[in-house]
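Two folds, back to back.
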Amino acid sequence: MNGFKYIIIAFIIFIGFISTLVAISFKQKIPLVSRDYYEKELNYQCEIEAMKKAKSLESKVEIFFREKRMFLSFHDDLEFSQGQIEFYCPLGPEYDFKESFNTPCYQLNLDMLKPCNYRVKIIWYDCKGNMYQLIKNYYKN
């Protein structure tokens, strides 16, 4: 009877542990990457082509981060029209940030970003409407 009592106690502790884990997992907020993820997934082939085009021009585009600022510069021989910078953080949409730009030399103050590891997507268009895309990582502490 003594051994049976320990098995019952261990079983009760195990059920309590599993119940606690289930309760915690239901309370966690897990946001989607974006609200329109299905449309973005359908257009992903365009993004792949834009990344390939941008790879060929990577030496003509300068992107660097210094002292809470992001500097973006396109060389003069590129036919730049407009672009957009997207900062994505997996912690939630309240960390994300988007900004449009229309000058070939652009700098962005990063003070408004919360501490996180960001995936920075830079999308730009040339005068003919061709899309280009680069992805960089940025960690703000």
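---
second:
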Amino acid sequence: MPSMKSTTQDSLGIKKKLSASLPAAVAALVIITAVVLGYGVLLARAGRYQAVFLDNNQVYFGKLHHGWFGAAKLNDVYYLRVTQTLQPQGEPTQDIQIVQLGDELHGPERAMFIPKNQILFWENLRKDSQVVTAIKRIKEGQK
């Protein structure tokens, strides 16, 4: 019959082993969660704009956040509107404008949820990019 002292020592040894493996278990859980939830979205620079390229050849600009249920959330959304005008003589001209989501006829909110399986890739935009500069101009005009 084991003595009370050896049983206590055994249980302390088990507790030490469990407490030593706890950080590794937490790290594994964080990694698994990041992979399942879409770790790429977690790398978007907070407070900065991203260009999000979709599998239907559309590009949206905004602030990318992790969404729920397999979707990423894009806040403060803008997109490009290309208008092509025909000239009586010569080449047609293209007018490219950046438009803020929400000004359309159906009046959507200024955020959208995009299924992650439709995102081909995304890029962080520099603060001095032409897109970010145009967004700043639009925001200044709204004040």
